[in-house]
Amino acid sequence: MIQPPFLKEGDKIGICATARWLTLEQWEPAKRILESWGLVPVVMPQVFAQQGQLAGTDQDRIDGLMQCLQNPEIKAVLIARGGYGTVRVVDAIPDEVILESNKWLCGYSDVTILHNRWNNLGMATIHCSMPISFEACTPLALEQLRGALMGHWQNRTWTGESQTWKDATAPLVGGNLSVIYSQLGSSTQLKTDGCFLLLEDVDEMLYHLDRMMQGLLRAGLLDNIKGIVVGGLTQMKDNTPEFGFSTNNPWGLCAEEILIQYAERVKVPIVFGFPAGHWEQNEGVYLGRSLRISRTEKDNQCFTMELV
């Protein structure tokens, strides 16, 4: 796995939008934070362009990402926000540009398709919060992103649930389940052999969570994984009056129970509560690099992720 060089104070970091746009007001808090780290943000103009929900045309967003990748003064690329739209630009970026750029790509959610493409090519990336939500992040989440960018890794520790986890080492890949599912059968379908699979999602129906896991199972993405690492499963919904439906027709299992079923089916361990996803504790973590995940105190379900 190719590991891009770490950043140092004074380095430029490119900000582009592959999906939705930012306003100047939304950008300002992230600008202050990045500058406080000693970095120099270089914002692509299309970040503030507005064409419906998207930050300009597809070509505008392609150009913004390409400029960040091909400008030798820019040392890392941070996507401004997620939403939807990155799938419309991902195939326009040549493999050789990704590999020759040798830069950290950073983001999450809709950016999962870029992580999967980069990781499939052998390039490590950083799954992390984005400028749209910097202001809402916990101080630790931001510090973990700064450390990941600048090579000051701190072990990730969290309290989660797992009845099956066994200490193991493997590369971590994955991201947003909906985006991983949407790539099945495409040229960017995620390669998962021998890896921990990171999954998180937001605002999904429980039956659709099961549908997506069926898709991953049938496509073979669960066949040879080392374990499932689950981050935030936020704002999950069911077919009940509580969520605005006229009839009470619940799926019958909660989100965690659905995922446990699939882990049991392929006989791999699963751990919940990892600090990644659509919540304020979205801590920056490497994708594509080998990590060791161990249970530190069995009684209180405390886990540690170490860089190998």
Describe the overall structure.
With 308 residues, this protein is of the alpha/beta class. The chain folds into 2 domains: 12-150, 3-Layer(aba) Sandwich (Rossmann fold), CATH 3.40.50; 156-307, LD-carboxypeptidase A C-terminal domain-like (Glucose Oxidase, domain 1), CATH 3.50.30. 28% of the residues lie in helices and 22% in strands. The protein has helices at 24-36, 58-70, 95-101, 112-120, 139-150, 177-182, 206-218, 255-266, and strands spanning 12-16, 40-43, 74-79, 104-107, 125-127, 156-159, 168-176, 196-202, 227-234, 270-271, 285-287, 290-297, 302-307. The strands form 2 sheets. Strands 6-13-12-7-8-9-10 form a 7-stranded mixed beta sheet. α1 links the parallel β1 and β2 (40-43). It starts with 11 loop residues before the first strand and ends with a strand.
